[in-house]
Design brief:
alpha+beta; two-stranded antiparallel sheet; 4 helices; 12% strand; flat
């Protein structure tokens, strides 16, 4: 899951983005990505990579529970460049 189309209005009802709309990413995508992974993983016999809205180890774990073999962290890395390392470490702790 990369982004889903989104729109933000300015105070006058016009578009806040120059192109009129843009991609919604980050935490808002978590339930959308989880649903997609669950559907795809049930339909294919190849590894599925979960992407979208992962900020924490619990988010990554939810993708694994939905059928993902791997996860990818995107937008969260802009706010916290160490996010992927933190999630990986926390997953190891979570696994025991």
């Amino acid at each position: 899951m990369n982004t889903v189309p989104g729109f933000l209005a300015d105070g006058d009802g016009g578009a806040r983005l120059g192109a009129g709309r843009g991609g919604t990413s980050g935490p808002a995508l978590l339930p959308v990505g989880l649903a997609a992974v669950r559907e795809v993983a049930a339909a294919v016999e190849v590894p599925v990579i979960g992407v979208g809205g992962i900020l924490t180890a619990a988010d990554a774990r939810a993708y694994f529970d939905a059928g993902a073999s791997l996860v990818q962290i995107g937008t969260a890395s802009f706010a916290d460049p160490r996010c992927a390392a933190r999630v990986a470490r926390d997953l190891e702790v979570f696994a025991g």
